[in-house]
Amino acid sequence: MESEETPTETSPPPSGPAPVRTLARPVEDELIEKKSRFLAQLHPVSSTEEADALLRAARAAHPGARHHCSALVLSEQATGSGPVQRSNDDGEPSGTAGMPILQALLHADLTDTLAIVVRWFGGVKLGAGGLVRAYTAAVEQALDGAPLLERVQRSEIALEVPFTDVGLAENAVRHWADVHGAAAEVHATEYAEAGARLRLLIDPALAEDLDQDVAAWSQGRFVPREIGRRSADVPVPPSTPR
């Protein structure tokens, strides 16, 4: 009979310069190790409630599996309080499943991510070291080539123009944003009685470049201004090392 364990809570590591990433969509992969089958399911999540529901769904979908081990990483942005990291061995020897899964997520700089590894025992014992390697490899294999988003800081920029210049302004800022790719985005155009406000999300390092571009095409009539900062998720190119 499968035994239940209390999820292990761990303290988040110190913050550093590593990029913060999450999955663009759920992914699934399978690993066979000495006749044991390991099915890794990785999900982007935004709350513990969503993660718990996905874990219940995995148990319901694979009732014949011996273990449904898991790890969860949530950012402060997702929880609204503090970051969350937790892992569950679900009947495997302590520290041989949940923690390796969690470490694989952290090593990939992932947040707001749930990893579930479902194991069917194949009749050959793997030992503690073998279990650690297998659960780690199952997550790493699922992550290999998975579509990722990188969480970055963006400046929110407002550019106010009269109605007579809306077409010119929109064409100019969209061209500028296209040149800078994922580092810049025209977020919205808002209309009011006096004219329009174009809102952009840009890499803070591009603020001076945008100022110069606007000054050039508007002949100095318009000046972008920062109205706030926010985080945004941008695609990670497949070739980017992880």
- The CATH first-level class of the largest domain comes to Alpha Beta
Name the CATH superfamily assignment of the largest domain.
Impact, N-terminal domain
Helix content: 25-40%
Return the average pLDDT rounded to an integer: 89
Global Rg: 23 Å
Order of helices and strands: EEEEHEHEHEHEHEEHE
CATH fold descriptor of the largest domain: Ribosomal Protein S5, domain 2
Could you give the distance between the termini? 39 Å
In short:
The protein is α+β, with helices and mostly antiparallel strands.
Structural features, described:
Helices cover 29% and strands 34% of the residues. The protein has 242 residues and is an alpha+beta fold. The chain has two domains: 8-146, Ribosomal Protein S5, domain 2; 149-235, Alpha-Beta Plaits (2-Layer Sandwich). The strands form two sheets. It has a six-stranded antiparallel β-sheet with strand order 1-6-5-7-4-3, with helices on both faces. The longest helix is centred in the middle third of the chain and has 17 residues, at 127-143. The two termini are 39 Å apart. 31% of the residues are buried.
Task: Detail the topology: elements first, then pairings.
Elements (H helix, E strand, L loop, with lengths): L7 E2 L10 E4 L3 E7 L2 E9 L3 H14 L5 E8 L1 H4 L4 E5 L9 H10 L5 E8 L6 H17 L4 E14 L4 H14 L4 E8 L4 E7 L4 H12 L6 E11 L7
Antiparallel strand pairs: 1-6, 2-8, 3-4, 4-7, 5-6, 5-7, 8-10, 8-11, 9-10
